[in-house]
Design brief:
Elements (H helix, E strand, L loop, with lengths): L6 H12 L3 E6 L5 H11 L4 E5 L2 H7 L2 E2 H4 L15 E2 L5 E2 L11 H9 L2 E4 L7 H15 L9 E5 L11 H7 L12 H5 L2 E6 L8 H11 L5 H8 L15 E4 L2 H13 L6 E4 L1 E4 L11 E4 L4 E4 L15 E7 L4 E4 L7 E3 L2 E10 L6 E11 L2 E3 L2 E3 L11 E4 L8 H6 L8 E3 L12 H11 L5 H19 L3 H16 L6 H8 L2 H22 L10 H27 L8 H26 L7 H14 L13 H5 L3 H18 L9 H10 L4 H4 L7 H21 L20 H13 L4 H8 L3 H13 L11 H12 L7 H8 L5 H16 L1
Parallel strand pairs: 1-7, 1-8, 2-3, 2-6, 6-7, 9-20, 9-21, 21-22
Antiparallel strand pairs: 4-5, 10-12, 11-18, 13-14, 13-19, 14-15, 15-16, 17-18
Helix pairs in contact: 1-14, 5-20, 15-19, 17-18, 18-19, 19-20, 22-23, 26-28, 27-28, 28-31, 29-31
Length: 832
């Protein structure tokens, strides 16, 4: 079958290859959906992955399971909107991401670089699972667009097998979904899907049989249809094995019993063929029997297509075993002149990764299953027959229990003559969900034509051009970095913040304003008569714009950001500011590489490839000990001394196996390199150098300073070092303020208590005071989970504000300090 012989297949091909529109590709049994998927994998240049709801479906589709790729749990997935929280101030808080497991860095890189995600057998995917996929893609692609902006291709027939959902699971999901079907998911309704239904049936040629199947599929089987169908009812039909009939039944136990009894009835020696299973290949994904028991005379079915040029067999072809040996089975199929020598074949279990050199999406083989591509075939379940084709079948669907089972069973047959009914088909056996019928009728009204396709191609190219010249993401990440730095100003050198602030003016005037003007020009130049890539005037303007923006990104952002580095003793500052800096640096890097790829002309796939490669190529530039400006050196009058002091501190930290801040804080080293204390008395003036530090390191620090001054013949002006102030006992508010100041610089409560000679509980009381004043965030001291529990306790009018009573209530689950911080936080909110 060639994918271009009918208009629906061609339309699907064009939408997937040349637009960014999401596509739902459906069609009756035998219309070529599976063939389309296999051809797509061979032909597309887009970076794609294929997933399916079950292990066997994933193996057959050449992909992986949904749950393994997106790392989802098997239970119900509560939609993100339902997990949004409202805090005590009435503010909407982000949804808890606890349902999303931790992804490896490599998996995140792969997800961010994808152009296309294909979900096969979509009819079996529940609504909540599709929403969970959407949430994972949006979260890791940092995009608010449905599915994170990646193109989705959903393949399946809603009238075949439905999602499996237990009663208790549906009770959990019922408040959020109209039905369990994927098209009722929040993500599907937000996204714009193009529905394309394949109409041409390749499996059956008999028009009368096709009409009968359509009537069953659409729940329109009237008395006349049922009467015609039940003419095939032959309860006493007992075919010989030579006739090659297979029984389709609803339950696995029934199929197994038929196969077992038939095999045992053969008076011949059994031969057992054991599968060779290597590395990772989970049992639930086995495509065949791990131990296949065969006898001469057994009826078998091929479960894989022949890879040889002769194409001697296909998945679903039935034959009879005529000879066996240790390594080979000989099968003769009805109507064939030649026998088939069947050798073991291999199925692959894959995992997606990225080739670091080519940046292509790889299908890494992580396990194999090697076995004869055969199974006993006197009977098979309707569920396992999906996707197969039989010339002769006996259907026992009296116990049909799921939507679509009867249709799946009947549609496996090539013609009505090869179909025999073991039981009559009664009206109640044909179960079709009205929800599916209504949705299908609605989607038919939205079927696209070539005008819609051309509009989609044009829109896709304009969207990519707009993205190419859009600097919103860079500005957003810049603002986030600046906010993070300003909020932690006490832990950073002011010059680093000034450096970051200095970027905004040229970025605004030379990039943001100009890009907005050019995006408007794109809209003006683009015409409905031509695709943007075929518009000569637009192509010329695009080249010139790329040259301009490449130069400006390098001079305005690249030089300043890629070499920007900072130093801090505060681990939280280092983590938060570092992450924001990395995000901005990556956004700039990806934008620059994308623009560079288009300086000689904009071409869709070339741009998509360059953008994906940039996502994968980016590496974090060092933020510590780099050639760029650092906090210490920019604020020190004597950078060489500062460098010696930091080297001394690093050695001490290594010797004592502690963080450098536990030796001497960087801000103290900056102050030492500026004031150049010549003795212990002068060293005592330095902020952060207390009695303990003096005792441990005072002599060495003074020696370093004196040696430096002597080496460079620096004459120190003693008046520059203020006389030590005799400390008087400060009133409590001043003492609290001192604790606050030290905490803001990044010192921990334990470190403050050690330096000030106070108990930890005293420092906690000082800081709790400022939580009550709204100056410190309670989240710095109490986890969100405990904050909610303790707040609920104190907000209950029947409970008092007594910490002792509250401690008795919570026991060891919470500490006195957590109770105090939370209570002060609530008092501040009440005052507001």
């Amino acid at each position: 079958m060639e994918p271009t012989i009918n208009s629906q297949l061609q339309l699907a091909h064009e939408f997937v290859h040349h637009t960014g529109r999401n596509v739902f590709l459906s069609g009756k049994a035998g219309t070529g959906k599976t063939t389309f998927l296999h051809r797509l994998k061979e032909s597309t240049d887009k970076r794609m992955v294929v997933v399916a709801p079950t292990g066997v479906a994933a193996i057959n589709a050449g992909g992986v399971t949904i749950h393994s790729f997106f790392q989802l749990s098997f239970g119900p997935q509560i939609p993100e909107e339902a997990r949004l929280r409202v805090d005590s101030r009435g503010m909407i808080m982000p949804a808890d991401a606890s349902g999303i497991k931790k992804f490896s860095r490599e998996k995140i890189r792969l997800i961010r670089s994808l152009d296309l995600v294909v979900i096969d057998e979509i009819s079996m995917v529940r609504a909540d699972i599709l929403d969970a996929i959407d949430e994972v893609l949006r979260r890791f692609r940092h995009s608010s667009q449905p599915f994170g902006g990646v193109q989705m291709l959903l393949i399946g027939d809603l009238f075949q097998l439905s999602p499996v959902v237990k009663d208790d699971e549906w009770e959990i999901l019922r408040p959020y979904y109209q039905s369990v079907y994927f098209f009722n998911s929040k993500a599907y309704q937000r996204a714009s899907f193009v529905p394309i239904e394949l109409m041409h049936i390749y499996r059956q040629q008999d028009k009368a049989f096709i009409e009968l199947l359509n009537a069953v599929r659409n729940n329109q089987a009237n008395d006349q249809i049922l009467s015609e169908l039940n003419k095939r009812y032959r309860p006493d039909f007992r075919p010989t094995d030579e006739e090659g009939y297979i029984t389709l039944t609803t339950h696995n136990a029934v199929a197994n019993e038929i196969n077992y009894k038939k095999l045992e009835s053969i008076n011949a020696k059994s031969v057992i063929y054991k599968a060779v299973i290597e590395q990772e290949f989970p049992e639930y994904a086995y495509p065949g029997e791990a131990e296949l028991k065969i006898k001469v005379g057994a009826q078998v079915m091929f479960i894989k297509n022949d890879l040889e040029a002769e194409r001697r067999f296909f998945n679903g072809k039935i034959g009879k075993v005529i000879a066996v040996s240790e390594e080979i089975v000989v099968v003769k199929c009805p109507g064939d002149l030649d026998e088939i020598n069947v050798l073991p074949m291999t199925w692959r279990n894959i995992r997606y990764s990225v080739n670091e050199e080519t940046k292509d999406v790889l299908e890494d083989v992580i396990g194999t299953f090697t076995q004869l591509p055969l199974k006993l075939a006197w009977a098979i379940t309707i569920h396992k027959s999906q996707g197969l084709t039989f010339d002769k079948a006996i259907i026992d669907a009296q116990s049909a229990f799921a939507y679509g089972q009867v249709y799946v069973a009947l549609s496996r047959c090539r013609n009505l003559e090869g179909l025999v009914l073991r039981t009559r088909i009664a009206p109640h056996c044909i179960i079709t969900d009205e929800t599916i019928s209504r949705y299908t009728q609605d989607s038919l009204q939205q079927a696209p034509d070539h005008l819609v396709l051309m509009d989609a191609r044009r829109s896709f190219q304009l969207e990519l051009l707009n993205e190419l010249f859009d600097f919103y993401e860079i500005r957003r990440r810049y603002d986030a970095l600046l906010r993070a730095m300003e909020a932690r100003e006490a832990g950073l050198n002011p010059e680093s913040i000034l450096t970051m602030r200095s970027i905004i003016t040229p970025m605004q005037s030379e990039l943001l304003v100009v890009s907005e003007r050019f995006k408007n020009e794109i809209v003006r130049i683009a015409t409905p008569d031509f695709l943007p890539v075929d518009n000569v005037h637009l192509a010329d303007r695009t080249k010139k714009a790329c040259v301009y923006f490449v130069e400006k990104v390098k001079t305005v952002l690249g030089d300043a950001l890629m070499n920007f580095a900072f130093e801090t003793d505060n681990k939280e500052v280092k983590k938060i500011v570092g992450e924001q800096l990395e995000g901005l640096q990556k956004a700039v890097y990806v934008k620059l590489k994308s623009l560079e790829s288009c300086v000689n002309g904009f071409e869709v796939l070339h741009y998509l490839k360059a953008r994906a490669h940039a996502e994968l190529d980016f590496r974090v530039s060092p933020r510590q000990h780099s050639s760029g400006k650092k906090v210490g050196t920019t604020s020190s009058k004597h950078p060489l001394l500062y460098k010696e002091l930091t080297a001394w501190r690093d050695n001490k930290a290594t010797e004592n196996n502690v963080d450098g801040s536990r030796i001497v804080r960087l801000k103290s080293l900056v102050e030492i390199s500026n004031l150049l204390p010549s003795n212990i008395r002068e060293l005592e003036i330095i902020n952060g150098i207390g009695k303990k530090k003096i005792k441990e390191y005072g002599k060495e620090l003074v020696e370093l300073v004196n040696a430096y001054c002597e080496k460079f013949e620096i004459e120190r002006i003693q008046d520059s070092i203020p006389e030590p102030v005799i400390k008087e006992k400060s009133p409590l508010p001043d003492s609290k303020k001192r604790s606050l100041d030290l905490f803001v610089t990044g010192m921990s409560i334990a470190e403050i208590a050690e330096q000030r000679g106070f108990a930890i509980s005293t420092i906690e009381a000082h800081l709790a005071y400022y939580v009550g004043e709204g100056i410190l965030e309670v989240s710095s001291f109490v986890s969100q989970e405990k904050l909610e529990r303790i707040s609920s306790y104190f907000l209950d009018k029947e409970n008092s504000d007594s910490l002792a009573i509250a401690k008795s209530f919570f026991g060891d689950d919470v500490s006195y300090s957590e109770l105090r911080f939370t209570l002060n936080h609530l008092r501040f909110l009440h005052r507001e």
